[in-house]
């Protein structure tokens, strides 16, 4: 009963956190490991559990979602699926220790990009968005998300900001749609590789869905400066925790 309660609580909060700022995997992964699930399997199982939360969060932001300059929604979908599949395949053949050393640095860089996004946009103002650069950026972040979901939201928000997206709710809605797409294709690959514990994943899906939709609807009512500050703090805390775990 305690294990079930822990997993449900972690999934609910993770779903809400992913809908707003990302980082839900840092709750689901340790919760699953604490209940006896091996780390690699916990990573895949937690990602599966958060998929409906991403979908619910995207639906919660449905009025605000719009693609960033330089990309169409159709191209964004294709890039998300390709990148997510590549990252998931990489998870099945790469040792976790290698990626754990890189994760905190990626989180710090993404948080800094998001925090100083408005200033960077002002410095780079005047040029047209580059579809080629946007394509490479989305592919790279989608591959990251397919491999390890932690910090995916921070990276996506940073990327959309640099591509010229200015409305935070639109960025959040788009972040959830991209997360849902790349996670969906990753789940197929995880399942084919036999690294998902379905009883835990199915139970956590219910809680993550409720948290994802509730978090998205609440976030739409939060003033943008407060929401931006909360996202930056989330990124810094996550990076610090990853450094501490090393």
Task: Tag the structure with descriptive keywords.
0% strand, Probable membrane transporter protein, 246 residues, globular, mainly alpha
Outline of the structure:
The chain is an all-alpha fold. The chain has helices at residues 2-20, 25-34, 39-60, 73-91, 96-115, 117-123, 131-147, 152-162, 168-193, 198-219, 224-245.
Radius of gyration: 17 Å
Helix and strand element order: HHHHHHHHHHH
Helix content: over 70%
- Strand content is under 5%
Number of domains: 1
Poorly predicted segments: none
Mean pLDDT metric:
81
Molecular structure report:
It is a single chain. By secondary structure, the chain is an all-alpha fold. The protein has one domain (2-245). It has helices spanning 2-20, 25-34, 39-60, 73-91, 96-115, 117-123, 131-147, 152-162, 168-193, 198-219, 224-245. Helix 4 runs parallel beside helix 7 (131-147) and helix 7 (131-147) packs antiparallel against helix 8.
List the helices and strands and how they pair.
Blueprint: H1 2-20, H2 25-34, H3 39-60, H4 73-91, H5 96-115, H6 117-123, H7 131-147, H8 152-162, H9 168-193, H10 198-219, H11 224-245
Helix pairs in contact: 1-2, 1-3, 1-10, 2-3, 3-9, 3-10, 4-7, 4-9, 5-8, 5-11, 7-8, 7-9, 8-9
């Amino acid at each position: 009963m305690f294990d079930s309660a822990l997993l449900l609580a972690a999934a609910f909060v993770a779903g809400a956190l992913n809908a707003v700022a990302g980082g839900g995997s840092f709750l689901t992964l340790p919760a699953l490991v604490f209940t006896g699930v091996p780390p690699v399997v916990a990573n895949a199982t937690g990602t599966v559990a958060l998929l409906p939360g991403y979908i619910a969060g995207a639906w919660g932001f449905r009025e605000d979602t719009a693609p960033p300059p330089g990309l169409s929604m159709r191209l964004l979908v294709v890039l998300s699926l390709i990148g997510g599949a590549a990252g998931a395949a990489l998870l099945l053949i790469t040792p976790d220790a290698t990626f754990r050393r890189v994760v905190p640095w990626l989180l710090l860089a993404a948080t800094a990009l998001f925090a100083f996004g408005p200033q960077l946009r002002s410095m780079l103002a005047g040029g047209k968005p580059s579809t080629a650069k946007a394509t490479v950026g989305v592919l790279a972040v989608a591959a990251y998300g397919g491999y390890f979901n932690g910090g995916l939201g921070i990276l996506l928000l940073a990327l959309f900001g640099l591509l010229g997206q200015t409305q935070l709710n639109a960025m959040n809605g788009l972040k959830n749609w991209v997360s849902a797409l790349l996670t969906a294709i990753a789940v197929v690959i995880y399942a084919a590789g036999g690294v998902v514990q379905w009883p835990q994943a199915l139970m956590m899906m219910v809680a993550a869905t409720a948290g994802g939709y509730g978090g998205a609807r609440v976030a739409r009512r939060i003033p943008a400066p407060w929401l931006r500050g909360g996202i930056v703090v989330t990124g810094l805390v996550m990076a610090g925790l990853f450094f501490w775990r090393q």
